[in-house]
Write a structure and sequence with these properties.
mainly alpha; 4 helices; 69% helix
Protein backbone atom coordinates (compact mmCIF):
# COMPACT_ATOMS: atom_id res chain seq x y z
CA UNK A 1 0.00 0.00 0.00
CA UNK A 2 1.26 3.44 -0.88
CA UNK A 3 1.41 5.31 2.41
CA UNK A 4 1.52 9.12 2.61
CA UNK A 5 5.16 8.91 3.70
CA UNK A 6 6.13 6.84 0.63
CA UNK A 7 4.13 9.19 -1.57
CA UNK A 8 6.01 12.24 -0.25
CA UNK A 9 9.30 10.55 -1.07
CA UNK A 10 8.15 9.82 -4.63
CA UNK A 11 6.90 13.39 -5.06
CA UNK A 12 10.23 14.76 -3.84
CA UNK A 13 12.15 12.54 -6.31
CA UNK A 14 10.13 13.61 -9.35
CA UNK A 15 9.07 17.18 -8.51
CA UNK A 16 10.16 19.95 -10.85
CA UNK A 17 10.04 22.58 -8.07
CA UNK A 18 9.35 22.77 -4.33
CA UNK A 19 5.56 22.93 -4.44
CA UNK A 20 5.11 20.52 -7.37
CA UNK A 21 2.72 17.72 -6.48
CA UNK A 22 0.72 17.11 -9.66
CA UNK A 23 2.97 17.45 -12.69
CA UNK A 24 3.17 14.60 -15.18
CA UNK A 25 6.50 13.21 -13.89
CA UNK A 26 5.14 13.12 -10.35
CA UNK A 27 1.94 11.39 -11.45
CA UNK A 28 3.93 8.87 -13.50
CA UNK A 29 6.19 8.15 -10.53
CA UNK A 30 3.25 7.54 -8.20
CA UNK A 31 1.49 5.34 -10.76
CA UNK A 32 4.66 3.33 -11.36
CA UNK A 33 5.01 2.62 -7.65
CA UNK A 34 1.34 1.56 -7.40
CA UNK A 35 1.76 -0.66 -10.46
CA UNK A 36 4.81 -2.34 -8.93
CA UNK A 37 2.92 -3.04 -5.70
CA UNK A 38 -0.08 -4.41 -7.58
CA UNK A 39 2.10 -6.68 -9.70
CA UNK A 40 3.55 -8.16 -6.50
CA UNK A 41 0.01 -8.68 -5.17
CA UNK A 42 -1.10 -10.41 -8.36
CA UNK A 43 1.87 -12.79 -8.23
CA UNK A 44 0.59 -13.99 -4.86
CA UNK A 45 -3.09 -13.90 -5.90
CA UNK A 46 -3.30 -14.86 -9.59
CA UNK A 47 -7.09 -15.23 -9.58
CA UNK A 48 -7.77 -11.68 -8.38
CA UNK A 49 -9.31 -10.41 -11.61
CA UNK A 50 -10.70 -7.20 -10.11
CA UNK A 51 -7.21 -6.07 -9.15
CA UNK A 52 -5.92 -7.15 -12.57
CA UNK A 53 -8.46 -4.80 -14.19
CA UNK A 54 -7.27 -1.97 -11.95
CA UNK A 55 -3.68 -2.75 -12.94
CA UNK A 56 -4.55 -2.53 -16.63
CA UNK A 57 -6.28 0.81 -16.06
CA UNK A 58 -3.24 2.18 -14.23
CA UNK A 59 -0.88 0.97 -16.96
CA UNK A 60 -3.07 2.69 -19.56
CA UNK A 61 -3.14 5.92 -17.57
CA UNK A 62 0.65 5.85 -17.18
CA UNK A 63 1.06 5.18 -20.90
CA UNK A 64 -1.10 8.19 -21.76
CA UNK A 65 0.81 10.43 -19.34
CA UNK A 66 4.12 9.25 -20.79
CA UNK A 67 2.89 9.96 -24.33
CA UNK A 68 1.79 13.45 -23.26
CA UNK A 69 5.15 14.09 -21.63
CA UNK A 70 7.09 12.80 -24.64
CA UNK A 71 5.13 15.09 -26.93
CA UNK A 72 5.34 18.25 -24.81
CA UNK A 73 8.63 17.91 -22.90
CA UNK A 74 11.01 15.30 -24.35
CA UNK A 75 13.77 16.10 -21.81
CA UNK A 76 11.46 15.48 -18.84
CA UNK A 77 10.20 12.33 -20.57
CA UNK A 78 13.73 10.96 -20.98
CA UNK A 79 14.73 11.73 -17.39
CA UNK A 80 11.49 10.28 -15.97
CA UNK A 81 11.84 7.09 -18.01
CA UNK A 82 15.46 6.74 -16.89
CA UNK A 83 14.64 7.32 -13.19
CA UNK A 84 11.87 4.72 -13.27
CA UNK A 85 13.80 2.21 -15.34
CA UNK A 86 11.27 2.25 -18.17
CA UNK A 87 12.34 1.46 -21.70
CA UNK A 88 11.84 4.67 -23.72
CA UNK A 89 11.41 2.76 -26.99
CA UNK A 90 8.78 0.48 -25.42
CA UNK A 91 6.45 3.37 -24.61
CA UNK A 92 4.24 4.27 -27.52
CA UNK A 93 3.95 8.00 -28.12
CA UNK A 94 0.80 7.59 -30.16
CA UNK A 95 -2.41 7.82 -28.20
CA UNK A 96 -5.36 6.09 -29.78
CA UNK A 97 -8.54 8.04 -29.03
Amino acid sequence: MLTPRKKKIIVKEHAMHDTDTGSSPVQIGILSRRIDELVAHLKKNPKDNISRRGLLQMVGRRRRLLAYLAKNDPKAYASTAKKLGLKPEAVSTQVIP
